[in-house]
Amino acid sequence: MTKKLDPKVLMALALAGGQSLRAQGIDWNQIKTGLREAAAKDPLDALATTVLGGSLLFWLAERDVNPDCRRFEDALVFVSTCLSVGYAKVFAVTPAGKAIATALMSIGPALAATALAPPSRVGAQEVDPSAAIVSKLDAILDELRRARPPTPP
């Protein structure tokens, strides 16, 4: 028989970890910045880590309680659908499972969308879209002026 993942234990670990991080001089803003940078650096890797890590946590939280989540694969299907359309036979029934699902549904769709976006060109200079439009309009105006001679005054 496996032990059930108690949400109170999760909360205590999170609080203890938070206090430990603060003791080392790391704050929540640093954590957020680090997560954003990691996701931006390799979105596909961040997505894979989120899917596999989230599936493991969800399975540990639900496996002894939820009859629809007995195998890791059940959790994997649930988590992968949380990142997109949200369609699965599995639903969270434990408080910890609901918290995990909430976090996944909050960040998942944006993470999944960026993971499959085309990579930006390294070293490419950003172009101001309005400057590009003005430049094209100036070129069109020049062509129109050449095509039709000015009318005499």
In short:
This protein has helices at 7-23, 28-41, 43-62, 72-82, 95-115, 129-147. It has 153 residues and is mostly helical.
Structure description:
The chain is built from six helices and no strands. It has 153 residues and is mainly α. It has a single domain (7-118), classed as Orthogonal Bundle (Helix Hairpins). The chain is elongated. The N and C termini lie far apart (97 Å).
What level of helicity do the residues show? 55-70%
- What's the CATH topology name? Helix Hairpins
Taking the alpha carbons of the first and last residues, their distance comes to 97 Å
CATH class: Mainly Alpha
Query: In terms of structural class, how would the helical and strand content be classed?
Result: mainly alpha
Provide the β-strand percentage band.
Answer: under 5%
Individual helix count: 6
Low-confidence stretches: none
CATH architecture: Orthogonal Bundle
Secondary-structure element series: HHHHHH
Largest sheet entry: none
Q: How many strands?
A: 0
Give the helices and strands, then pairings.
Blueprint: H1 7-23, H2 28-41, H3 43-62, H4 72-82, H5 95-115, H6 129-147
Helix pairs in contact: 2-3, 3-4, 3-5
Keywords:
single chain; 153 residues; mainly alpha; Helix Hairpins
